[in-house]
Amino acid sequence: MTAIQLNDVSYHYPTSDFKLTIDQLTMTANLVAIVGQNGAGKSTLFKLLTGLMQPQTGNILINHHDLADLSPADRLKTIGIVFQDPSSQLFNATVEKEVAWSLSQTESDAAVIAEKVAQVLATVGLTDIKDKNPFDLSMPEKKLLSIATVLAVDPQIYLFDEPMISLDWPSQQLVTRLMQQLAREKHQVIAITHDMDWLAATFSKIAVLSDGEIKFEGAPAALFGQPELVHAVGLLPPRIMSIVSDVLGDSRVYLTPADYVAKHQTH
Ligand SMILES: Nc1ncnc2c1ncn2[C@@H]1O[C@H](COP(=O)(O)OP(=O)(O)OP(=O)(O)O)[C@@H](O)[C@H]1O
Ligand SMILES: [Mg+2]
What we know:
The chain has helices at 42-49, 72-78, 95-104, 110-123, 139-153, 169-184, 196-202, 220-224, 227-232, 239-248, 257-263; strands spanning 4-12, 19-27, 31-35, 57-62, 65-66, 79-82, 157-161, 188-192, 205-210, 213-218. It has 3 domains: 1-69 and 156-236, Rossmann fold, CATH 3.40.50; 90-153, no CATH class; 237-267, no CATH class. The chain is built from 11 helices and 10 strands. By secondary structure, the chain is of the alpha/beta class. Helix 3 crosses helix 4 (110-123) and helix 3 runs parallel beside helix 5 (139-153). Magnesium ion binds next to helix 1. Residues 42-43, 161 line the site of magnesium ion (MG). InterPro entries: AAA+_ATPase, ABC_transporter-like_ATP-bd, ABC_transpr_CbiO/EcfA_su, ECF_ABC_transporter_ATP-bd, P-loop_NTPase.
């Protein structure tokens, strides 16, 4: 099990009034979602978790080791990030070289690299376009490629910043299955999302950020059982809850249509 622990962490950009302030946050679940309004600080939190930016106060512990003490190679093996905009991550001449370059940061054996590259390209369904230039790919393909570059390194922790955005439905299904499989294989998967339906169907633990502070940590059902809090942090409940509330006046918590059906089955 992986444990990420933030203690008295604060960060502010020199050029903005925004401040991230997290007194205590512990993440141990294999699938964790981070949610909150635009500008709440979600991506800032991810940048701190990658070790690319250092908090101005406090520390971030991963399995009780300070993230700041890890060597660059160990950091890559510990935590990998798929950015919201895949283009920012891609710069090699071909799809295959892009994945190989990523793995070469932590692996030097060319045979191992070649085998792993072929394997992850097959996993994300990009084998047929391995010789294409990444910039000629469609947006879903670019996103799948940026996921492949992280899969090749196979870090303990995967961060996904808005993985569903700009993906078509089959790619969304593929990425969701991949994330669930990683979580089953004892990786930790943390995703930022604005999609409450996907969140409610996929995640067991959520952290809510608002104005740079953690306002809730817990299960989706516990969050959506507090409508005032959901409103205050600028979120909406899953669509099934809004529909059942509007149409039937039933304000109980339903995470998915299947959850509604299960709760109304007569035995
Ligand atoms: N490099 C930067 N320099 C200065 N200010 C920044 C920088 N990056 C982000 N900010 C500011 O910090 C605040 C938090 O930004 P952040 O990107 O973490 O929000 P977010 O929760 O990821 O939002 P979104 O849902 O829109 O992606 C915002 O006010 C943003 O304008
Ligand atoms: Mg963001």
